[in-house]
Amino acid sequence: DVLWHIFMCMFFASSARALPWISLLDMTTGSVTQLLKEGKPFAEAGQASLAEQLAFYSFAKFPYGDPVNQVIFRGTNSITFGQDYAQIETGYKASVNLIKQLVPPERLLVFDVKVHGWDDLTNFLEFPAKEKGRPFPHPRSKNSWTNDTLWEYAPVWQQLAVVAILGGLHIVNFAIVRCLCKLGRRLYLRYFKSESARD
């Protein structure tokens, strides 16, 4: 599943970040900022819209990287690839301890799936009780080749739309960069080469 996320987020969805498409969309519609402000959770089938799925994969103004938030490399983001297990565990425990220090005890539930259940969670969040016997969601599975619930729960048309939009942006980016390179070459040949020929 790590390879899937590297492919989707780092390579495929980079088409939305190569040129400032996300900022342009947000400047014209405000939809990206609105999406992030809403902060809707999506963990089950059909809960993520096409826009939310595109934002997720392209890190649309990714909250930890957005300069407005000033939180990059804090919390669990202080854990990076390439660290050994001891460093990762230390970083994780430091993040948990920081949360425990910052959040008042009455507003914090340290949830343990081996100890707590739906009743503990719904009571703490002041949500209506879940029906008895309802299992907890299990987003990761040995049978899944992506372990990406956002992708697997999306309808086929939405998966195809994500592929078409992000793939199409790679083509558009290539075309724009190619045109700019040709223009730069023409300007160079017209002005700089002609200047050197005169000398």
Give structural notes.
The protein is an all-alpha fold and 199 residues long. Helix content is 57%, strand content 0%. It contains 9 helices and no strands. The protein has helices at residues 2-11, 15-18, 21-29, 31-38, 50-58, 85-102, 118-125, 149-153, 156-198. The chain is elongated and about 85 Å long. The protein starts with a helix and ends with a helix. The model is unreliable at 67-72 (pLDDT under 50).
Topology:
Layout (H helix, E strand, L loop, with lengths): L1 H10 L3 H4 L2 H9 L1 H8 L11 H9 L26 H18 L15 H8 L23 H5 L2 H43 L1
Percentage of residues assigned to helices:
55-70%
Q: What is the mean predicted local confidence, pLDDT?
A: 77
Shape: elongated
Spans where pLDDT lies below 50 across 5 or more residues: 67-72
Give a quick account of the main beta sheet: strands, pairing sense, barrel closure.
none
